[in-house]
Amino acid sequence: MSRRLPRLDVGDWDGDIVRPGDRRDLEIVISESYSGNEIHLPVHVARAEKPGPTGFVVAAIHGDEINGTGIVRQLVLEEELKLTAGAMILVPVVNMPAFDRHSRYLPDRRDLNRAFPGSPDGSMARRLAHLVFQQIVGRCDFGVDLHSAAVRRTNVPNVRGDLDHPEVLRMTEAFGCELIVHSKGPDNSFRREATLAGCPTILLEAGEVWKVEQTVVETAVRGIRNLLIELGMAEGEPVLPTYQVKSRKTKWVRAEHGGFLHFHVAPGELVEKGQALATNSSLLGRVQNVLPSPANGIILGMTTLPAVSPGDPICHLALLDQPMRKIERAIDRLPEESLHERLRADLSSSLLVDEPAGSAEPE
Ligand SMILES: [Zn+2]
Prior knowledge:
alpha+beta, Aminopeptidase, CATH 2.40.50.100, 2 domains, 4-stranded antiparallel β-sheet, 8 helices, 30% strand, globular, binds zinc ion
C-alpha cells in the first residue's frame, strides 16, 4: 500500500535554491516556542552534479537519542558523503523541542515518533510531524532514521526494517551491520509511514541516549557510505561486515528477583540456549539466581543499570535459527583493533562483564 505524498524539489526550499554540485545549510521554521520564538530545523542539503536518487538521514526524532546527531554532524563536517550522483538531506535533530530539554518526548509529553505522517491542524506533535514529513520525506526516494536504546539501556548497532519490502531489504543488507532485525515499526512511526508513502526507510538502533559514542558513529558512517555505493550515489568499495544475520524475532529476558546483577555477556555477543547471561545476587553478593538464555541468538540490547526488580528487562535477544559455529569462527579470527571488537569493548565499558563463578571459557 502506498500513500500519496506531494513531491517537492530537493533544489528548492521555499525559494532557497540548492543547485547541482552545491552543499547548503538551511533553517526551516517548524514551530514556535512558549516564549514565542521561532523553532528552526537545521538541514544540510548536498547535491551532486549528476542527477540520481535523493535520500535523507535524520536523527533525534527522540530528542535524547543524540548518537544520531553525532553521526549526522560527522557526515556534514568531514564531507564524508562525497556524492557522485543524486542528493542527500541531513537533519541532525528532528525533534528540536525535545532535544532542547534532553528529553525523548515533546514538552506536551507526546512521542513524536507515534505522530507521523501528522496533520497541519492537529496536536503539537502531529503538526511538527506533518511539516517534517512534507519537507523531508516529500523530497526523498529513500531514508535512514537514526535511534538509540531507551534510557538505562544500550543497543549494539543493528538495522531494522520491513524485510518483506524488497527495497528495504536491499538497503538493510547494503548498510552492512552484522545484525538485521525484521520490524515494520510501530503504527505512525516515521520509518513505517515514510515506507508506506513510497520512501523506503531503514532504522539504525545504536548505543545509549545522551551520548555520542565513537564506534557507533564509525559503524553508522560506514553503513551510510555502503548504502550510497549500493544506490550508485558514491564511488568506492563497500566495507562488508565479518558476518551478517537476520532475525525475525526478538525477546526480552527479564529479572525473576529483585537484586543486583553481574553480567556474563556483552552487547553484540552470540549466546547459546542455556548460557548464563547474568547472575542476580543480594546487595551483599549472595547468589539468588542465574539467568539462562532462553534460545540461541545475539545480545541486541542490555540494561546498563545493575539494580533490578522482578520483570525488569535485562537482555534483549535477537533470536537466530541458523547454526552459529561459522559466525563464531569468523569472530575468533578478528584482530582486536577491528571495529567489531572495539565496538563490543566500547558498549560494555559501562557494565561489569565477566564469566559466571566456576565456569570455564566456552569452547
Ligand atoms: Zn528512538
